[in-house]
Amino acid sequence: MQCRTVRTRLNIYVNFCQSGLEKRYSPVSDELQKRLDYELGVIIKSMGFVDYFLIVWDFIHFAKNNGVMVWDVEVRQAVSLRTVLA
Fold first, then answer.
1. CB-hemisphere CA count at 13 Å for 64?
2. CA–CA separation, 43 and 66 (whole Å)
3. Would you state the pLDDT for residue 82?
4. Can you say whether the dihedral through the CA atoms of 25, 29, 35, 38 is positive or negative?
5. Dist CA 52 CA 44 (whole Å)
6. pLDDT-derived band at 85, boundaries 50, 70, 90
């Protein structure tokens, strides 16, 4: 009998952010990890915006893969670390 891993929308988004952090900032400093953890804890988990960010990610992902110009993510870097990583 095999166990099935249950992936929630929150787990999916946290994994997107964590893998993005590791991809862009390898090795990941403690300061960056704490910042990401804080942003995910306050904005996503306590406020419940995970569905919104997954939908936005899906739109941007589709646009980039289909030659549609999207807003440069580097501009958003000052706003929030997690918006750049996802």
1. 9
2. 30
3. 61
4. positive
5. 10
6. low
Please answer whether residues 6 and 48 qualify as being in contact, where contact means their C-beta atoms are separated by less than 8 angstroms. Answer: no
Confidence (pTM) = 0.68
Element (H, E) at 3: none
Name the more confident of 72 and 9.
Answer: 9
Q: Dig out the tokens for 1 from the structure.
A: 């009998």
Distance of CA 27 to the CA centre of its chain: 18
Residue 77's pLDDT is what? 45
Cα 57 from chain centroid (whole Å): 8
Q: If you write DSSP's letter for every residue of 13-80 in order, what string do you get?
A: HHHHHHHHHHHHSSSPPHHHHHHHHHHIIIIIIIT--HHHHHHHHHHHHHHHHTT-----TTGGGGT-
C-alpha distance from residue 58 to each of 1, 12, 32 (Å):
34, 12, 24
